[in-house]
Specification:
The protein is α/β, with parallel strands linked by helices. Helix content is about 40%, strand content about 15%. It has helices at about 15-20, 25-35, 40-50, 65-80, 85-100, 105-135, 155-165, 180-190, 205-210, 235-245, 310; strands at about 145-150, 170-175, 195-200, 215, 220-225, 225-230, 245-250, 255, 290, 300, 305.
């Protein structure tokens, strides 16, 4: 992906407004990182993007209006880097809208409002993850057998809380091909003394699900009546429902969006699936799949434990 630029990127570099609005430094690097998926958690992406906007606080702007335009344009550059993270969308919009609505009479006051908005967003996302994990811990009885997919820091936190309380678990972890993020999850879980961690290939989930008491995964986002999460979540949820195993997803409330956000899947490079050239066939590599929320038993956020049936009624 070429360097992410704002609308001013095609203007005259000698223009002071261009120099103020052009996304450089931390913002440019963060947008590139988001586009390359070097950060895998959508909450981490949201926090990184919010903090990247601090780069604007060190620049000079002639008027409040020009500063606000620079903020909106650079925020848009971060949003364009990935259209699949609802928490990125909601947190960036929150920052921009708060600053735009503020009745300030100086650039310094606008910057102070931006700093306050960034701090509020970061605190809300991190607190949301922590509280969601605490609520999910309550659903994990001692001795339970679980299956999880992909790598979720919120799922890790929930299990860590439970182990700290003296509970123990057997956890099946799918590899989460093609990026094998499940292997990272398995390595982390193996550090927990109370967890018997068992790594399995994705296609083996149906074999082990009848042994499980619950499927527990993180979530990229929920938009309307659809959960978007790492590809492979849908077949696991469908199979779990078929064999009568409850499916719980956990994440901050910022990841649930009622409207205004259009999820766009990310199609990754073919080399993640197969390194040698594909001759005579096409390699498809979507990053996420769509799971109807009616396949879920519960959605745990910092706001509570939700029954998805209430969203589809």
């Amino acid at each position: 992906m070429p360097g992410v630029q704002t609308a001013e990127a095609t203007a005259d570099p000698e223009n002071p407004l261009w120099r103020g609005c052009h996304s450089v430094g931390m913002i440019d690097e963060t947008a590139q990182e988001i586009a390359d998926m070097q950060t895998h958690s959508s909450s981490v992406v949201a926090v990184k993007a919010a903090e990247a906007l601090r780069d604007l606080l060190d620049r000079e702007y002639p008027t409040v209006g020009e500063y606000q335009r620079a903020l909106e344009q650079n925020s848009s550059a971060l949003l364009r880097a990935n259209h699949s993270h609802a928490s990125l969308y909601s947190t960036q919009r929150e920052i921009v809208e708060r600053v735009s609505a503020a009745d300030v009479d100086s650039v310094e006051a606008a910057k102070a409002e931006t700093e306050a908005a960034i701090e509020a967003v970061v605190e809300r996302v991190e607190l949301g993850k922590r509280r969601a994990a605490e609520r999910a811990t309550e659903l994990l009885p001692d001795g339970a057998t679980l299956l999880t997919h992909d790598y979720s820091t919120t799922v890790l936190a929930a299990l860590s809380n439970a182990v700290a309380e003296g509970r123990s678990f057997t956890v099946y972890v799918t590899e989460a091909r093609p990026r094998f993020l499940g292997r990272k999850m398995a390595r982390r879980l193996a550090e927990f003394e109370g967890v018997d961690t068992r790594l399995v290939v994705d296609s083996a989930s149906g074999h082990f699900l009848p042994e499980c008491d619950r499927v527990l995964t993180g979530m990229s986002c929920i938009v309307g009546e659809t959960l978007y999460n790492r590809v492979g979540t849908y077949p696991i949820a469908a199979t779990a429902t078929d064999v009568g195993v409850p499916v719980t997803v956990v994440g901050s409330a910022a990841k649930r969006v009622e409207g205004g956000f259009d999820f766009e899947n990310d199609f990754r490079v073919a080399s993640e699936v197969m390194r040698e050239p594909a001759e005579g066939f096409t390699i498809e590599n979507p990053a996420y799949d769509a799971t109807p929320v009616d396949l879920l038993d519960s959605v745990v956020t910092d706001e509570g434990v939700h029954d998805p049936a209430d969203w589809t009624a």
